[in-house]
Queue: 2 jobs
Job 1
Amino acid sequence: MKAIELLSPAGAYPILKAVIGAGADAVYVGGPAFGARAYADNFSKEELLESIDYAHIHNRKVYLTVNTLLKEREMEEQLFDYLLPYYEQGLDAVIVQDFGVLTFIREAFPQLSIHASTQMTVTGTDGAAFLQKQGASRIVTARELSFEEIQKIKSDTGVEIESFVHGALCYCYSGECLLSSMLGGRSGNRGRCAQPCRLPYEVLNAAGERLTREATHILSPKDLCTIGMIPQLAECGIDSFKIEGRMKQAEYAAGVTSIYRKYIDLYEQYGREAFHVDKNDEKKLESLGSRSGFTTGYYTRHNGSDMITFSKPNHTKTDEKLHETIRKTYLQKDLQRKIKGNLKLFCGKNATLSVGTGEAEVQIFGEPVEAAQKKPLDKNTVSEKMQKTGNTSFVFESLEIEMDDDIFVPIGQLNALRRDALHALEEKLLADTGRIGMAVKPESHKSDIGTRNVRTADIHTADFSTTVSVQTTEQLACVCKTDYVTRICLDADTFLRTEDTADLQKAYQSITAAGKEACFILPVIFRERTRQRYERLYDTVFTIPFDGIIVKNYEEIGFLQRHAYTGTVMADHDLYTYSNRTQEAFAQSGICRNTVPLELNYKELRHRDCSNSELLIYGYLPLMVSAGCIFKSLKKCQKKESLCYLKDRYGKHFAVRNYCTDCYNILYNSSPLALFGMRQEVESIHPKSLRMQFTTESVKETEKILSFFEKIYIQKGKWEQNDWKDYTNGHMKRGVE
């Protein structure tokens, strides 16, 4: 059985040293930029370079987080120079979210392992296989997956699997959350999540009545703890056990690491039968940090009320005695690697010291050994002096001494011999990890579109088509009657709820009868159960001659590629394309068109070529996609789609719809995106098409929006502030940091 990797977090250099001392096989860290924990202390360039050496001397690994989305200039002007010194120092792997970053690193930094972040929302075999083909050597699975789903990914692809085993849980599928971004401008995709999911909300039904008074923190999961599930985690194929917590203190990181190290070793040595977790260790984990107790997460359940805190999360009181023990054991002294040595002191020959770790060995020669004139050296004295390794990286596990009886060597020479040998061993251990001169800087993908000015000619000659997506038959009928609409997109969550395709076929016929293009939007989440359903439906659904299939995740890209689908495939805004390089990476993977990211402002979008992109101009934006279910958490699940609302402390109402076919919730923004007052800015970025996205709107509301669009974008009329007040411009003006 392959040894399990224990992967621990470190928000600062002292924490890295502590978790390595506590038993971590690898450590993931954030550097000065591009990490998903922008508010952690993180590592300076010098600290990170030193950390890589420290880890390698102790036979451990360092993974660097580059798990945010990169804007155009960051990708083209900063990324290569940022990574180069760490790559040359021997960095073991990078953790990435941005598909363009993945392909950039694959091209620029040979032999650097690429790990697909949980932010990429990999939920099945097709997504894992697609990213593996693109160069990812490891998949960090979505936290929502079950043992069975992980086991299938492993057995079908053989790719390395990394999964979270301890720490905080997000309510939303990682990488699918815009809640913090849209409410306060702090984007989780840029490492700045403000965690509004931890705030109180009132739960209201569709009529506005409060469903519960007790459950105020309905979006706040308990912390994950799987210490008792180590055998199952290992046996389902997880290669790396990941502890969450780069924002946590050293005592937490080292303490949790030491306990997981203990039980991983127990399992690996004695197997499942002898595996048992001591209650005292469970208490230690809880005292080190938990949010209203622990949950074992999604491994054995799809969702449930026992995963949610409901009331204000109570963090456990600090056990100062335990913290002090951890500090003394792991923080106040550096780890020393055990080595074996052989010292030879024979009269008339050079003193010789060989030291090694088992994987590396060096031999150092000293001065010639002299005959003793007075008091000869004895073996005990030599052993005592030679084993004083002090603050070095090493300690002798054993030292074999071969020497003549009547000899003399100055103590200073013995010290120098030891010092030179340990330094040479350190250099030997690091020599094979460096990659000087191996990086290849990719050609720039800069676009001259960023140099364009907003000119009157640009505005008046703007040429785009119009797309509308619908979720109800009433909306569909309304849109079919609208002359200026070019294409209509049918949402799978409402037009293909079951394996009966009659509704989908009928809707398609309505669209084509109206003389418009028809597109089909696949589900937001495409897990194993969903994949199996679409396997059964493939010959029916994908033989409908849609003008485009819109994909929302890597599973669907992989699914269509595996079936050799030859139709037009477009990426929705869930597949982020901040940069031109990322657009090109998707294009090379068969994606014909993409959707403009929701978090870039119009000035940034001028540096992004939008000529093959669709811009969302109207719609209630999905802020969260969750495997958790509000109704299930409140024990009010009726296994049918319905609507509820979350009311925040400012009185805003956020619609939540449960999609029961594939069992997930979507939380929508309280106000719709409406870019009717920004026509000049919109037209200055030259999108290929504009989209209106209808979700919960009535026929009357749908007609009103279609009328607004016609007035502003078709007739080039003026937007009056009094036309409509309850809307948002999203990030079109402000953007995200």
Job 2
Amino acid sequence: MSAELLNLTKYTLNEGVYILSKVNDNFENTYLKVREKENRIYSDNELKLLPFASGSNPNKKEWDLRAKSFLRFKEYIKTKNRKLNILDLGCGNGWFCGQLSRSFDHNFYCADVNLTELKQGRKVFNSEQLNFIYADIFNSEISIGLFDIITVNAAIQYFPDLKRLIERILTLINDNGEVHILDSPIYSMSESLNAKKRTMDYYLVLGFKEMAENYYHHTWDELSEFKFETLYYPDSLENKIKRLVLQKDSPFHWIKITK
């Protein structure tokens, strides 16, 4: 039923993934090589657990932080008293919606341009309420005004123009819809310069200089013309104290954008 809402059944299926755009694996091939070098290619069993990583996961500390972001969003979704259409843009292997689908009877759509990870997500999180979509958000027929919520999790850095991205996403939500940016770095102008250097140095050491050219450092100025609010502010006094006294939490803001 959820596939019919987006009229997905008219598109080609590739191992359970709906193909809405021409497949271009140039970036995907490089991206997957980087992920392998970073020990971020996960088994099906590990993917089922995320964001609650196993003790053997080499990136467990990072996932522990992402789990806190996930749980905050999960609590937020509990406040919604109707069935929602939720799109996770830049979903990777779909763990975010995969986990949410275990607790909520919403329609979930997982979109990315990484066919390998989409196929794995479809295999691992096999549910009628979950739809995995290969789609370039700017060059695909995605229904205007269909979605109640669109999330972008740790993914805005792969889009060169944040303003254009948000403008496009806003056309996809309904009049009361929401866009949520989670676990994504946003910098001041001065911070962005230092971040660019760190990124270049990181990928040089990793052996993938070309990846730095596909990683973008967005600033708060780019959000200035949109209607947004911060739902989690890591630099608040309360959260600073929590991190010092209790335990670490996400260093990234949670931002909600509406029309």
